[in-house]
C-alpha cells in the first residue's frame, strides 16, 4: 500500500515537472493602450519562434511600433481580404535587423492563422526578419495554400495572443491613412515574462 502511494506521488511529481519544463515562453508587448501577452510556440516553429525571441532577448525591438492595420475597408485592390495589425521595425533596412530566416509554412508547423495568432510579415519565402502581425479573426488565406500571397506558401505563424486582444482591436481602429496608422503606436517594451 505504501509503495503504491509513493509511486503515485512520484508519477504526479514527474508529470508536474515535465509540464513546467515544456511550458512555452510568454512575451509581453507593452503599449500606451495596454499590454498584449503572447505565447510563443518554440517546438512547433523553432526557426521563426527562435528568431522572434532573439529580437526580444537582444533588445532589437527598441523603437519598434505597430504601424499598419489591414481592415476589410482599406484593401480595395485586394481580391482576398484579411484583417491584421502589423508591427516591428518598419524599415526595409534597419541596423538592428538580423539576417532573413527560412520560411516555416503552416503545413510544416501546424500553426494556422486563427484569431490572435502572431505570424511573420514577408515579401517572398525566406525574406522575413523582424516585422510581425497579429490576426484579427480567423485568416485561412494566410495559411499554406491560401490565396493572399501569389506564391501560395502562406506566412509563418509562431505564437498566439493569450491576453490583450481587446488592445489589438483598439489599435486596429485608430486613425489611419491607407493602411498605415497615423501616428504609429510606439511599442514601449517587448520582453519575456517567464
Compute the number of strand runs.
Answer: 10
Strand content: 25-35%
**Taking all residues together, what is the mean pLDDT?**
91
**Main beta sheet:** 10 strands, antiparallel
Q: Tell me the structural class.
A: alpha+beta
List the helices and strands and how they pair.
Elements: H1 2-21, E1 26-31, E2 34-40, H2 46-57, E3 65-70, E4 84-88, H3 106-109, E5 117-120, E6 132-135, E7 157-163, H4 165-172, E8 176-177, E9 180-186, E10 189-192
Antiparallel strand pairs: 1-2, 1-10, 2-7, 3-4, 3-9, 4-6, 5-6, 5-7, 8-9
What's this model, at a glance?
It contains four helices and ten strands. The longest helix has 20 residues.
